[in-house]
Amino acid sequence: MLYYTHLIVALFFALFLFPKFGLVFFIVMMVSSLLPDIDTKYSKFGRRWFFRPLQFFIRHRGILHSFVFLIIVSLVLFLLSREIAYGFFLGYGLHLFLDKIGIKAGSPLETLVFVVFLVGNLGLIFWKVLLLF
User: Fold this and answer.
1) Secondary-structure percent of the chain, ordered helix, strand, coil, rounded to 5
2) Which of 19, 37, 105, 131 has a 20 to 30 A CA-CA distance from 50?
3) Residue 60 sits in which domain range?
4) Number of domains in the chain
């Protein structure tokens, strides 16, 4: 999947959970939804020069795309902050889940997923604004 589909799906769940957790959770979830792809120079974050050494040693969809890595990093983050750990676990985990279901990047199915979650995000935003008044 392309980066914007990972973001739009993560945004849906972040908006759904946002009032309960907060801004730090929201930001960590959005950033971590893109992190598994830093192992390729074609990703949004991976194109940065400081990830090149990592990309030399780690193949794409290797250790960074494992649920074991997700759980270990989440447990370490949990020792620092529950809010950060939850945001990381959900954002990173959603990325891994979306990659595992096997929708090809740029395919019509990916476009459909993007549009469905975009509409869902707009609905959630509208609903939350209505609740404020």
Assistant:
1) 80, 0, 20
2) 105
3) 3-132
4) 1
